[in-house]
Fold this protein.
Amino acid sequence: MKKNVNIGIIGLGQIGSRLYKEILSKRKDIEIKTGKKINIISISAKNIRKKRSFSFSKKKFCKNPIEITKNSNVDIIFELIGLSDGISKKIVESALANKKHVVTANKALISKHGDYLSLLAEKNKVNLEFEAAVGGGIPILRTIKDGLATNKISKVIGILNGTCNYILSEMENTNESFSNVLKRAQKLGYAEPSNPKLDLNGYDALSKIRILSALSFNKRITKTNCLMNGIEDIDIDDIKMAKKLNFKIKLLGITEIINGKLFERVHPCLVKKKTYIANINGVMNAVILNGTPVGKSVLQGEGAGPGPTSSALMSDLLSILRGNIKYPFGIPNNKRKQIKSYDQKFYSNSFYLRFQVKDKPGVLLSITKAFAKNNISIKNLIQDPDKKNKKAFITIITHQNLEKNFNSLFKNLSKNKFLLKKPTSIRIEKE
Amino acid sequence: MKKNVNIGIIGLGQIGSRLYKEILSKRKDIEIKTGKKINIISISAKNIRKKRSFSFSKKKFCKNPIEITKNSNVDIIFELIGLSDGISKKIVESALANKKHVVTANKALISKHGDYLSLLAEKNKVNLEFEAAVGGGIPILRTIKDGLATNKISKVIGILNGTCNYILSEMENTNESFSNVLKRAQKLGYAEPSNPKLDLNGYDALSKIRILSALSFNKRITKTNCLMNGIEDIDIDDIKMAKKLNFKIKLLGITEIINGKLFERVHPCLVKKKTYIANINGVMNAVILNGTPVGKSVLQGEGAGPGPTSSALMSDLLSILRGNIKYPFGIPNNKRKQIKSYDQKFYSNSFYLRFQVKDKPGVLLSITKAFAKNNISIKNLIQDPDKKNKKAFITIITHQNLEKNFNSLFKNLSKNKFLLKKPTSIRIEKE
């Protein structure tokens, strides 16, 4: 790479603006570390007139971002719009095809089109870097590709969505309802004000798990559906009951190889209060990797926000300025495996279940019968009567059993006339 | 770098042996990831006949390790002997001078001669990598150089010595004495059987803190003395008392910039039970970094042993195989700063103090007078009489004050005729 390197930034929201200022303030440091002089020569954003905390020469502004990707003077492009398709995809495609290195924070794009785009990067002999797409400031992708290179990773567990973790932590601390805490999260900027669904339903965490999975197991990104539950149905009573039972509720993303097959999933979990993962609170993110020969490695840090994200973007920039061309997923695309999906039916775990039932004789019998019928044994059972409303709550912690047996249990229970609503079921995860 | 890369391994103890096998088993993986075919063509160890868990062709064995460093067919040399000077230094010097890349796990060597050796590597345009020297399997050096590159790091706190952390955790769990637990640690291979001093007195942790410091603050390695206390004087009564007061005792390595000056230190600390660092138990290592813009980052993992160490050595190997020549400390040697030392006298913290005193009237008065005289105010005071032996224990938690006032307090107290032995003093660290 030549000594003077020119940069284009597309997208000047919170992240893009912070990055712009970060690059300007670190130019000298970057020159010392890499020997390269960098210049931001072109930028693009929706609105040139929007009030920003920095000024830029209007000559640098380019209304059509695709033009930047074709500008022969630009060497590296930051894509910071964040769509899974549309203009984001077009920008990255065109940039790579025009032999520009690309840095993006876009987990939606990478988890959907990462295989195709990394192949495009490989063909055009340029870098495609996306450290900021997973875990914010935690350099987790680089750690898997470089720091733990050649380790055989068997399992990755992560708290990957700060919005969900904040909501669950706050519910636990304040005993307030999901909807109240969500409103506060929106006010504080921890949840999207208009449509927080993609955070709350697990989709965001699943995108990140798929990227982690691809890197950890040297495989292509999974396209098929898999277990994805969000936190929208977690009731404050579940949080309180979990607390009583010495658990916390966390939204975990998990990917592991079981008997040579891949099991990727995102769902709320009960985790023992004393475990490491239970103590990651608020908007923090954390990732636990099991590898051989390294053993268990843990990385924790701020998962979102302009500061941590621009830290990750800058590490990508330095990687490009310092190094040779690298494979976006650590190995050549034609060596990346397809791993068959593990059949969830055969996964064995224990469940936390909470039932809201009519307070009538025979209720407990009818429920325990359903358990017996499906060969699921009960570890703890707690009954809380609510005499005033003529109902009761039954909480059950089960022993381990196959998911298929639980499915059949849930089917049986759905016909139970004593049940006032669909039971809550949360998997118990041993860290 | 050419496609076929030849490796020499010097030192075939636990680490060298594991690395040898690891390299053989990962050759294909390495070729996929880096495009390089690697071969171990030369090895050296004290004793060719020692029983090993693998066999090698005697032709590869070289009695004099310096010969390997001069072998024109060797491209990369692993130095795994581990001395701070002597043959280890000669091997690394000769290898670099002969334009071989060097990988070492030797923290004693790097913390003592790292500046000189990195300059030698830079001059000869080869790599000198030492990820395994700090934090075992935790890729902490690479994280600072790459993952958090361009962050301004202000403070690093670490549990960097597994032996000490194991002993302190075990004392807490079993209520056994330091010497009993040390014996167990030696049996289990967690402490050196013959001379565990360099672990216990803080020297090992200090070597690592100095390397972390150099990388975090882009500075030369500190040569001057600094605060270094070990855990040899920690009594089981201190552990118990700390527990009562909701603290744990940990040996921490800390480096930070205070008003533009450098404060490096290793000493036991009382840390609040609920903090992250208090919950790193057993032989685990952990590092907490405060940086801008990333915020707080935490890395945790196994700190020693052949598995984690060979994971780190392999990451160094891949870094060499994949990349260009890198600066061993992230920036050119002539840009690395000298930072003046912070004067410890002006450091402000609070202390845990435990006194063993005669059970006589006036004792408490004479002690509290000494505190008043030095303007140190007391936050908690607990008196435990031991009537049978006509003595008492007084435990004091102080408010924050300057180290120089504490020094003067200790001087005053040393003359106190009621004191049966030198008081125990442990700093309280707010995470």
